[in-house]
Design goal:
Helices cover 50% and strands 18% of the residues. The chain is of the alpha+beta class. It has 3 domains: 115 residues, 2-Layer Sandwich (Alpha-Beta Plaits), CATH 3.30.70; 188 residues, Trigger factor, domain 2 (Orthogonal Bundle); 105 residues, Chitinase A, domain 3, CATH 3.10.50.
């Protein structure tokens, strides 16, 4: 069998496959013998049907099957062995394609159109300047996170009088004409926090109330428009909330006041583990480091997004085999139409251009992602996820298990590979150009993504 590349230029080519009888004859004969052994026709014992009859019944089908197998195996083998960087998939050639007649032919010629990825050359130097936005972990951000930790690890203590941020527990009973309604709603151990009551008048009924006292309030007014909260408080279905407009009594049984944890060794150990930090300054520094680590991937993403324009400009105008690519887009998705492909094509080429630029830089600079890289990246993802919930000291074995679970999921793995590659690409780019580091606040950084 002969496979060759013909009629090729920088963006397109034709892969020609010449198949002769000797390429498929043995496999066809083998398949037909298998059919004969299994054939069960009236008048013949199993396996004794004449081969001439088997060939007449199955010969063409087997021939087509074997020829298609030869095409598939050898077409992609040739592309791989000759390192042809093709876009999309090979398509049967629309020009100069010989007519195929499996009834009479023994030798066949097949031609496939292929679109090549254009050659890309990008030269970067320290004369190229790119901005790198780095989130400034300022005192305000630091203090907010410290406040969150002291609140999360705080405790409740019983008090005698209700404050706005206190937790009030008691018995709720529906009223009718100022007295408990017969068969009305009653909830034991109900919980209310005055700070979440929307109506100031209803909230005022709780503030200053004493333990064991009874107040009268209206849940529908107190939590106006918040069906879920009212339904949860009264233990009723949401569709019953609108018709539940009566006043309720609230017999206060306990009042719990939240007290923030103190900045001491006990808190340090809860957040970072036993004796990892031993004083307030170390505690603050570790929080700063953790926050900076959480923002780093977003900074890299923004950096690569901004670098896109420079890289595309450096690559210059790239040419593509538009006709082949449009045919492939039509063939790859049966919901596509010529009109839709024509309309979307400029955006597709724009995205493809940047994809090829990244792919080229990764390949040319050997920015490989190995198994240890994936494991490390998955652990950092897990660590960042825990960090969002204030858990800054997660045991290594827990991170390892989370990382392994992520790497078992095929979709997760592909996402991790892509992000790990982009991280390496960002690191390489930062070494090639002059970086202009700009410190911005978290709010300013968020707004950069809105532009």
């Amino acid at each position: 069998m002969n496979v060759s590349l013909i009629d090729n230029d920088a963006v397109r080519g034709v892969v020609k496959l010449e198949i002769v009888k000797a390429d498929y004859a043995d496999n066809v004969e083998k398949s037909l013998r298998s059919y004969r052994q299994k054939a069960n026709l009236p008048g013949f014992r199993r396996g004794m049907v004449p081969m001439s009859m088997i060939k007449k019944m199955y010969g063409k089908h087997v021939l087509i099957e074997e020829v298609n197998k030869l095409i598939s195996d050898n077409l992609f083998k040739y592309i791989h062995e000759n390192d042809l960087h093709i876009l999309g998939e090979p398509l049967p050639s629309e020009k100069d394609q010989s007519e195929i007649n499996f009834d009479i032919q023994e030798d066949f010629v097949f031609k496939f159109d292929v679109a090549f990825a254009p050659a890309i050359n990008i030269n970067l130097s320290k004369e190229d300047k790119l901005v790198y936005y780095q989130v400034n972990v300022d005192e305000d951000m630091l203090n907010k996170h410290i406040d969150a930790y002291t609140a999360n690890y705080g405790t409740y203590e019983d008090v005698e009088e209700v404050g706005e941020r206190d937790l009030v527990r008691g018995r709720i009973a529906e009223l009718e004409n100022g007295a408990p309604k017969e068969g009305g709603i009653v909830v034991e151990k109900a919980i209310v926090m005055p700070m979440y009551i929307k109506n100031e008048g209803e909230k005022a009924k709780f503030i200053g109330a004493k333990k064991n006292s009874v107040i009268v309030f209206n849940p529908n007014k107190a939590f106006e428009g918040a069906e879920a909260e009212i339904a949860s408080l009264l233990k009723i279905e949401k569709d019953k909330v609108a018709e539940t407009t009566a006043d309720f009594s609230f017999e206060i049984e306990t009042i719990s006041q939240h007290k923030n944890a103190e900045l001491n060794q006990e808190l340090f150990d809860k957040v970072f583990g036993a004796n990892v930090v031993t004083n307030e300054e170390e505690f603050k520094n570790r929080i700063r480091e953790a926050l900076a680590e959480q923002f780093a991937p977003q900074s890299d993403y923004k950096f690569l997004t901004d670098a896109r324009e420079v890289l595309v400009q450096k690559a210059g105008e790239l040419h593509f085999a538009d006709d082949i690519l449009k045919r492939w887009l039509l063939a790859a998705n049966d919901r596509n139409t010529r009109e839709r492909v024509d309309e979307d094509y400029p955006t597709i080429i724009k995205d493809l251009t940047y994809h090829l630029i990244k792919e080229t830089l990764v390949r040319q600079n050997n920015l490989k992602v190995e198994e240890p890289d994936l494991e490390d990246f998955a652990k950092r993802i897990a660590k960042a996820q825990f960090g969002q919930y204030g858990m800054l000291s997660v045991p290594e074995d827990v991170l390892d298990n989370y990382a392994k679970d992520m790497l078992k999921n095929r979709q997760s793995v592909q996402g991790i590979v892509d992000r790990a590659v982009e991280e390496k690409l960002a690191a390489w780019l930062k070494d090639q150009v002059e970086l202009e580091v700009k410190l911005v606040s978290a709010d300013e950084f968020s707004k950069l993504f809105e532009a």
